[in-house]
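Form 7-S
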Amino acid sequence: MERRFGSAYAESLARDHVFADLGGRTVREALAEGEDAKRVWLAVCEAFAVPARER
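Output:
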């Protein structure tokens, strides 16, 4: 996330943005609850239209 969004924005995104694809959880919440990191990253990619080559 830092590579794509920069460290400050990535931190804010992980802490504050709620993702529907993660069941209404933030990145931090999903990872803390054992969600697979790849699935979390793909949810971020979908929400922010990250190009396929960067996924």
